[in-house]
C-alpha cells in the first residue's frame, strides 16, 4: 500500500544539553523535556480523540499517529492545533518502523471493538494477531518504550505482548501496562454520584483485570470515605463498574464500544507515564501489570511510576 506521511510544518525543536531530570533531554525553546508518543490505531474511534488529547499535553514534543489507513487526514487535522507537539501521520505497515522510531511511550488502541452480545474474549482471535505484529515492531524499533495496551481483551493482549517481548529479548515488566484507567474513571464517577461528593475529590482503586467480574473496584478503600453506603449500595456500584463497558456497547447499539471516555482514560494514564518518566514523584495509577501480588501472573493494582536510576519502577502498594 502506498502511504503518505504528514508532518506539521513547525521547525524541529533542537534539544539543548541541560539534563536536570535523569535521562531526559530538553529543548532550548520549551521548558519540558522532549518526549515522543506514538498511537497505533490512531484513526479509530479511540485513536482520534486520544490523538487530540495527546496533542494538548505539554509534556509531548512529538506525536506519531499510525494506523493501517486514514492517518494522514487525522494528522493534518490535529497538527493545526497551536500546542507544542509536532504531529506526524503514518499509514501502512511499511511506515510502522518510522512511526515507532525513538518513541518513549507507545499507546495501542488498534483492533476491533465489541458489538452487543459479544464478550471481550470474542475479540481475541483478531486482536491477538494485531497486537502480536505491533509488539514485534515495537521490540525492533523502540525496545525501551513504555507500552500502554488498550486493545481488548486486555487480560490476554498484555500477556501476548509480554511473550513477544520475551521472545525478542526486550521484555521489561516495568514498561508494559494494560490500561484499566477507564474502570477507575467509571468507579470514581459512579461513587461520586451515589455519595454526593465532588467527583474531582474522589479516588477509588480498581484491581484485578479488565473483563466482567475480574474488574474489582475497592469501594472499601474509596476516598473520601462514606459512612452511609450500605452493602447493597456497594454491590450495585461494583456491578455498574463491572458492566460499564457493556452499558456503552448496548447504548451504541452496534456502533462500537466506549471511545470518548476511553480516550480520556488513555490520556490520563499516558500523562501519568510521562510524569513518571520526567521524575515527578508519587505518580500512582492502577494498571494491569506482571505481578506477584496474587498467584496470577498478571494483575491490575496500583502501579507507581517513577524514574529510578534509569528505569521505571513499579511499586505494588496494593492491599485488599
Ligand atoms: N482498555 C479499555 O478499557 C478499552 C476501552 C474501550 C475500548 N477498548 C478496545 O480498544 C480497541 C479499539 O477500539 P475502537 O473503538 O477505537 O475501535 P475502532 O474500530 O474504532 O478503531 C480501531 C482502529 O484500529 C485500526 N487497526 C486495525 N488493525 C490495525 C493494525 N494492524 N495496526 C494499526 N491499526 C490497526 C483500525 O484501522 C481502526 O482505525 C478495541 O479492541 C476495544 O475493545 C479497550
Ligand atoms: O467494553 C468494551 O468492550 C470496551 C472496553 O473494554 C470498556 O470497558 O468500555
UniProtKB/TrEMBL annotation:
Segments forming domain Lactate/malate dehydrogenase N-terminal: 36-178
Coiled-coil ranges (or none): none
Q: What is the lineage of its organism?
A: Eukaryota, Viridiplantae, Streptophyta, Embryophyta, Tracheophyta
Subunit composition?
Homodimer.
Family per similarity comment: Belongs to the LDH/MDH superfamily. MDH type 1 family.
Protein's UniProt name: Malate dehydrogenase
Domain Lactate/malate dehydrogenase C-terminal span(s) in chain numbering: 180-304
Q: Name one Pfam family in it.
A: Ldh_1_N
Note whether Oxidoreductase occurs among the keywords.
Answer: yes
Tell me the superkingdom of the source. Eukaryota
Gene Ontology MF term list: L-malate dehydrogenase (NAD+) activity
Tell me which Gene Ontology terms the entry assigns under biological process.
malate metabolic process; tricarboxylic acid cycle
List the transmembrane segments. Answer: none
Amino acid at each position: 500500500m502506498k502511504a503518505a506521511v504528514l508532518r506539521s510544518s513547525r521547525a524541529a525543536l533542537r534539544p539543548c544539553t541541560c539534563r536536570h531530570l535523569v535521562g531526559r533531554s530538553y529543548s532550548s525553546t520549551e521548558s519540558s523535556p522532549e518526549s515522543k508518543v506514538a498511537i497505533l490505531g490512531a484513526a479509530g474511534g479511540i485513536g482520534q480523540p486520544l490523538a487530540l488529547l495527546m496533542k494538548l499535553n505539554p509534556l509531548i514534543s512529538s506525536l506519531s499517529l499510525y494506523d493501517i489507513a486514514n492517518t494522514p487526514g487525522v494528522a493534518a487535522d490535529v497538527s493545526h492545533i497551536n500546542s507544542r507537539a509536532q504531529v506526524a501521520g503514518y499509514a501502512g505497515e511499511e511506515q510502522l518502523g518510522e512511526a515507532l522510531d525513538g518513541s518513549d511511550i507507545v499507546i495501542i488502541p488498534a483492533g476491533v471493538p465489541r458489538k452487543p452480545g459479544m464478550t471481550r474474549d470474542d475479540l481475541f482471535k483478531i486482536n491477538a494477531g494485531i497486537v502480536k505484529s505491533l509488539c514485534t515492531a515495537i521490540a525492533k524499533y523502540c525496545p525501551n518504550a513504555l507500552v500502554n495496551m488498550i486493545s481488548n481483551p486486555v487480560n490476554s493482549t498484555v500477556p501476548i505482548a509480554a511473550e513477544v517481548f520475551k521472545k525478542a529479548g526486550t521484555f521489561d515488566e516495568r514498561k508494559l501496562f494494560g490500561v484499566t484507567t477507564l474502570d477507575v474513571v467509571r468507579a470514581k464517577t459512579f461513587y461520586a454520584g451515589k455519595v454526593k461528593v465532588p467527583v474531582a475529590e474522589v479516588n477509588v482503586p480498581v484491581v484485578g483485570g479488565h473483563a466482567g467480574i475480574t474488574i474489582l473496584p475497592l469501594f472499601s478503600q474509596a476516598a473520601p470515605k462514606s459512612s452511609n453506603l450500605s452493602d447493597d449500595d456497594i454491590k450495585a456500584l461494583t456491578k455498574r463498574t463491572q458492566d460499564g463497558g457493556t452499558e456503552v456497547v448496548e447504548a451504541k447499539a452496534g456502533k462500537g464500544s466506549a471511545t470518548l471516555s476511553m480516550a480520556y482514560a488513555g490520556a490520563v494514564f499516558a500523562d501519568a507515564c510521562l510524569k513518571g518518566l520526567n521524575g515527578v514523584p508519587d505518580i500512582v495509577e492502577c494498571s494491569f501489570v506482571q505481578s506477584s501480588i496474587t498467584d496470577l501472573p498478571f494483575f491490575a493494582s496500583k502501579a507507581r511510576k517513577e524514574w529510578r536510576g534509569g528505569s521505571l519502577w513499579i511499586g505494588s502498594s496494593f492491599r485488599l
